[in-house]
Design goal:
This protein has one domain (about 5-110): Jelly Rolls, CATH 2.60.120. Helix content is about 0%, strand content about 55%. It contains no helices and nine strands. Strands 1, 2, 3, 4, 5, 6, 7, 8 and 9 form a nine-stranded antiparallel sheet that branches.
């Protein structure tokens, strides 16, 4: 079992994100998951990501606040415990249009080069 205490979770920088802070809860470490990683993102009011895409599918789970997600010509506002799956290569954007911090769990597979052995 690999336990990561919240107070020990390492921050990371996500490309093309703004007014957002993120923590790696699981993955990219010895003894962690071998096929995917889990991050926690805190979006400040007005913060967001994209628009961009990656070849990897991803799952978003909003834990607090609300986030507007645009993908595949659709726009949806996700609230607490709402989730969505973004397929690989689909352009998406995320935006916190509210006045409170929005928190989102992100689950993604490793990039192909690290899928067998996380760094």
């Amino acid at each position: 079992m690999k336990v990561t205490r919240f107070g020990e979770a390492a921050p990371y920088q996500a490309p093309n994100h703004f007014e957002m802070r993120s923590l790696r809860l699981q993955g990219f470490m010895p003894g962690g998951p071998e096929k995917f990683w889990v991050g926690l993102s805190h979006f400040l009011p007005g913060g967001g990501a994209g628009p961009d895409s990656s070849p990897l599918e991803k799952v978003y789970v909003v834990l607090a606040g609300a986030l507007t997600v645009q993908a595949d010509g659709q726009e949806v506002v996700l609230g607490p415990m709402d989730s969505c799956c973004i397929p690989g290569n689909e352009t998406r954007s995320v935006k916190n249009n509210g006045n409170e911090v929005a928190t989102m769990l992100v689950v993604m597979p490793y990039p192909e080069k690290t899928a067998e052995k996380p760094a």
